[in-house]
UniProtKB/TrEMBL annotation:
Belongs to the protein prenyltransferase subunit alpha family. PANTHER family: PROTEIN FARNESYLTRANSFERASE ALPHA SUBUNIT/RAB GERANYLGERANYL TRANSFERASE ALPHA SUBUNIT, PROTEIN FARNESYLTRANSFERASE_GERANYLGERANYLTRANSFERASE TYPE-1 SUBUNIT ALPHA. This is Protein farnesyltransferase/geranylgeranyltransferase type-1 subunit alpha. The lineage of its organism: Eukaryota, Fungi, Dikarya, Ascomycota, Pezizomycotina. Keywords: Coiled coil, Magnesium, Prenyltransferase, Repeat, Transferase. SUPFAM superfamilies: Protein prenylyltransferase (SSF48439).
Amino acid sequence: MAPGIFYHDDPAWSDVEPIPQEDGEHPLAAIAYTDEYSEAMSYLRAVMAQNEYSERGLELTEHIINMNPAHYTVWLYRSKTLEEIGADLHAEIKWLNPTALKHLKNYQIWHHRQIIVNKLDSSEGEADFIATMLEQDNKNYHVWSYRQWLVKRFGLFSKPEELQWVEGMIEEDVRNNSAWNHRWFIVMGGRDGKELPEAILKRELDYAKYAIRKAPQNQSPWNYLRGIVRYAKLPLSVLKAFTLEFADLARPDEVFSSHALDTLADIYAEENSQKEEAKKALDLLATKYDPIRANYWNYRKKLLDQPEAVS
């Protein structure tokens, strides 16, 4: 094992009196920190107590983050130090990149990155780095959340490059629900409830249908398709002809998508004269195509008999 980094015999820290952690006389569950980590934290407490913002303090936070990247207080102190000493924020991004790749699921890294990029007032290079991160895990929640922050912060909703990028992610994995969620965000996120232009409405409906035809049992594009119809305040029946391609009650043994059957049930439920057809669709889901959720489908069936049926 490589030797650790210690400060008690470093002349650069000889003026600092470390402050050890105080757990009380009889801690119920004292954490067994390593000597290296305990000492580094004791020096950090000391410099924080003196409100010291310095290069050595920055190096200290880097050391601690390498040992424990989830320590939120250390990240806050690092951010404040960068500001106080006027550090090169481009250099900070260069340091963050391999750190994020090493700790893929760490929230604090992404919060810190937001702070730095916000101060830089530029998203240059961020798209390439996000692509690198998603190569490791294409559904990493923190990365997708950060991408949405970038879109909102720099007004990228209507940028064709953003739509092209997310289409590429969906083409790569049509079942990537994170990519579908991002598409919704960029198409709808900047609209503030405004009506969807006819050309965009058609584009989005066509795209979702295209994706469904590639993988009919994939729930994400079905949810997206229905969401578009709901946003446009259209009746669900506009999807009837398309839905019948995958689930037709006249051919109960040839259902290619339980999601299509679910949608068909809702379409029939909208039409008072078709309630029995809706029940047949729900029966098929409960008994044959999604029996693991039979209780849910049977509950939906009971709702159809109520005055105000809720899908």
